Amino acid sequence: MRCRFLCLLLIPTLSLSSAAWSQSVSKQSAPKSGGDHSSSGDVAKVPSGVILVKGAWSSASDSTTPLPEGGNVANGVFSDQYFGMTYPLPRDWTETYKGPPPSVTGRYVLANLNPADTVKAPAHASILITAQDLFFDPVRATDAAGVINHMKDHLQADYKVESLPTQTKIADRSFTFFTYGSPAAELHWYVLATEIRCHVLQVVMTSRDTKLLDGLIQDMNKMKLSAAAGPAGGGSAPVCIKDYARDENMIARVDPLFTQRRFNPVPVRIIIDKKGKVKHIHFLSAFDDQAKAISDALAQWKFKPYQKNGQPVEVETGILFGRVHAQ
User: Fold this and answer.
1) Predicted local confidence at residue 32, as pLDDT
2) R_g of the chain, CA atoms, integer Å
3) Tens of pLDDT, residues 216-227
4) Among 1, 120, 224, 226, which is least packed, fewest CB within 10 Å?
5) Bridge partners, 194 (sequence order)
């Protein structure tokens, strides 16, 4: 994980640690906008002389297939169908802000959790649930341990490792556990990471009170993660295969025809059905014209059906269109 992302997390106040993504977040009650998340609501008047141009945003080819960023909090429970995750929040905790759209490197903010304003406690905490798409990870990690070790190795000098990454069991699932702190701010970070469907799912807890953090870790045993959504998918989920869109797996391929010259990378996740056709397209970040051109091209793609144990199965993979940032 790059230092610039860590710097967002390592803000030396508790209130800001849970709002590190606030450059792009909005109140949960505010109407969503952009991509496939557009909905009706109050429209603010555009000031005179101002022209608004829609930028790149996340979207999908259908509204029924679960997306990584599709999780929500309801009745005190955070759930994300894509990851098969159900997490009962600590008592009197809530989600105040929704996260930004996915980044071009496949970084998601799934939930930003804090005690409700009515909670009176001597110490406070925050919980940030994120995911990193391993198809587009600039660190090129292959698993949770790789992501966490990169985080450990790139801490700023003001932050100290408190415990080295170790393997632990939470809710009957293997997690990589790592802690670090800021002596100056008297803050501690507990990080738990596991792999689901070629993503590294992270739960980052922050507080000045380590006993409070230990209790939050114990509460995580109430969490449920679907056994079907394994590290590489499978079961009821597609099998995840990195770089599957190679020539040896293709029968037909058409390049997208872009009508405008753009200089942004366009990360796309697709699901290929048992017959080798693209059945679902998830744009992590794309302009509307790019999404249309890529969708039109992918509709003509045909893959050799992928078989597992002698039976055809669905495959999920990632493709990067457009300009690729230098690594």
Assistant:
1) 41
2) 21
3) 999 999 999 886
4) 120
5) 201
